[in-house]
Amino acid sequence: MTDSAFTTSHPADPDTDLADLPDADGTNGHDILEGLARPTTGELQLEERASLQRVAGLSTELTDVTEVEYRQLRLERVVLVGVWTEGTAAQARASMAELAALAETAGSQVLDALIQRRSKPDPATYIGSGKADELRAAVLETGADTVICDGELTPAQLTALEKVVKVKVIDRTALILDIFAQHATSREGKAQVSLAQMEYMLPRLRGWGQSMSRQAGGRAGSNGGVGLRGPGETKIETDRRRIRERMAKLRREIRAMKKSRTVMRAARERNSIPRLTVAGYTNAGKSSLVNAMTGSGVLVQDALFATLDPTTRRATLDDGRAVVFTDTVGFVRHLPTQLVEAFRSTLEEVVDADLLLHVVDGSDPFPVEQISAVRRVINEVVAEEGATAPPELLVVNKIDAIDATRMAELRGALGDAAFVSARTGEGLPELFDRVREFVGRADVELTVDVPYTRGDLISRIHEEGEVLTSEHTAEGTTMRVRVPSAFAGVLEPLRS
Ligand SMILES: Nc1nc2c(ncn2[C@@H]2O[C@H](COP(=O)(O)OP(=O)(O)OP(=O)(O)O)[C@@H](O)[C@H]2O)c(=O)[nH]1
Ligand SMILES: [Mg+2]
Q1: Sequence-distant (≥ 6) Cβ neighbours of residue 219 within 8 angstroms
Q2: Acidic residues bias: where (predicted)?
């Protein structure tokens, strides 16, 4: 066992009731909306994540595994394989580089990578049979224990390819699910990821149910018997039934959690504080931007899917007006369909926002592709919900990491965007100006007489709007204010 060895936590462990799981620590999700950002939250999470991985490494020694714990992947030493069907060679390489980054985020060591140019994946073994033999050779040569394919494979393809390469084969979907399982922290997030994993694994249970459990207990490569029936059909049927029961229970629990989230959101909607949702491709620097704009310590990590639960932070614009920033889960190409549901809370944040700050990594070789991957998912959800998409402000981040030529190119391609560096702070004042301009757009001006007994209204005016002039009288304060129209309705009875 190497230090990088780990198993995923097993959120679907049949003996762990979801109700026993600790509550989210209150630093994630909307419950901190009114609370103060703890500046070290991100650091704490990062530390916890690192220590969890070390401890989890030990648990691969566990021999007591059941068929149901099929999810205990051991992604240690991996070879990547991709089929390049369209686009340029550079795009194919970028897709593999992203797969490598995903694998490393999951804790694996990438030993080799192979790409095959084909018009479409081989229906039997994903890559062609000649290439599969080559892959087998690469596995032997590097001593890899896992092959990761850059796509979603059918259960039959996985099994057939495992037969040739004689080590465990997983696909991009399983890999992303694994990362989500490691990173989810809130109860709802954990439950949703478990559900997505089960949905994904159910049809694949026979294919790898037995090989997984063997492998989790034994050495890599010991699953030469894939295709053997293992403990028999009956056992698998029992497992399937247990998984289905577990899924039904999870669905019920998730529904209940969703209800309370809706209640929280409704509470938030009662005030007119503008909601800015920061969304974009994974690793674009969304959390860094939220930190830079609010001075709080949201978790930042050079890893994909560092953020899994929407995190909300309050900030004050320099005219004294409050806004709320929500940091969200990153998007990725080929997001597993099972995970779109797990993304639901992030997507709801996006749909509900007053302004969407769409962050893109300007130092990425293909920012335009990332932008369209993100917009595609957002549009799907918006259409599904029958909602309208919020206005979007494109934010090109990491401009400290690009040269002048590249910058000129990006300005040409993405003219209207705000160009910033969350790291150096460059461009942030302009971004704040754009945000302020946007936020002020729906304001109305009016003059009100606020009695001295209504200190609450005065502070709300400062928070949600702007005081232009103010004059004390015998009964109270006469103020000329500029406030959002929803709040203007509240002030209407005091109009002078
Ligand atoms: N050079 C440079 N690096 C940056 C900048 N902003 C963020 N980064 C780095 O990019 C990496 C990802 O940053 P995060 O803020 O975690 O990105 P994210 O979009 O929240 O990522 P996920 O939550 O994983 O989707 C980290 O290593 C940051 O230090 C920037 O302006 N310049
Ligand atoms: Mg993040």
Answers
A1: none
A2: 14-23
Higher pLDDT, 207 or 400: 400
Query: Could you tell me whether strands 476-484 and 443-451 are parallel, antiparallel, or unpaired per DSSP bridges?
Result: antiparallel
Lowest-pLDDT choice from 182-196, 356-370, 392-406, 459-473: 182-196
Q: Is the pTM of this model over 0.80?
A: no
397 lines ligand 1 (CB under 6 A): yes
Give the pLDDT confidence of 133-143 residue by residue, as tens digits. Answer: 999 999 999 98
DSSP tag of 164: H
- For the CA of 291, the closest atom of ligand 1 is 15
Side chain identity at residue 93, one-letter code: R
Question: Range of 326's domain?
Answer: 272-439
Q: Which residues participate in the annotated binding site?
A: 280-287, 305-309, 327-330, 397-400, 421-423
pLDDT in tens, 78-98: 999 999 988 888 888 888 998
* Cβ–ligand 1 contact at 284 (below 6 Å): yes
Q: Which of 182, 281, 283, 377 to mutate to test the pocket of ligand 1 (most atoms within 8 A of CB)?
A: 283
How much is the pLDDT for 284? 93
Ligand nearest to the CA of 304: 1
User: For residue 212, how far is the Cα from the chain centroid?
Assistant: 26
Q: Please indicate whether residue 290, judged by its CB atom, sits closer than 6 Å to ligand 1.
A: no
Cα–chain-centroid distance for residue 314? Answer: 20
CA distances from 180 to 149, 186, 331 (A): 18, 12, 12
Q: Which atom of ligand 1 is nearest to the CA of 397?
A: 31
Task: Please name the residue whose Cα sits nearest to atom 26 of ligand 1.
Answer: 302
Q: Which amino acid is at 402?
A: I
Residue ID of nearest Cα to ligand 1 atom 17: 285
In this predicted model, what pLDDT tens digit does every residue of 292-318 receive, in sequence order?
A: 887 655 555 555 555 556 677 777 776
Domain finish residue from 205, 240, 270:
270
Same domain, 406 and 482: no
> Structural domain tally of the chain?
3
Query: 30: Cβ–Cβ under 8 A, 6 or more apart, which residues?
Result: 261, 264, 265, 268, 310, 312
User: Is the pLDDT higher at 6 or at 489?
Assistant: 489
The pLDDT score that the predictor gives to residue 88 is 87
Is 328 a pocket residue for ligand 1 (Cβ < 6 Å)? no
Residues 287 and 245 in one domain: no
Q: Does residue 2 sit in the same domain as residue 90? A: yes
Domain shared by 176 and 80, yes or no: yes
Do 227 and 292 fall within a single domain? no
Task: Tell me which of 27-31, 156-160, 258-262, 400-404 is least confident.
Answer: 27-31
Q: Are residues 452 and 395 in the same domain?
A: no
| Atom 32 of ligand 1, nearest CA residue | 398
- Secondary structure (3-state) at 446: strand
From 183, 277, 286, 288, mutation site for ligand 1 pocket: most ligand atoms within 8 A of C-beta: 288
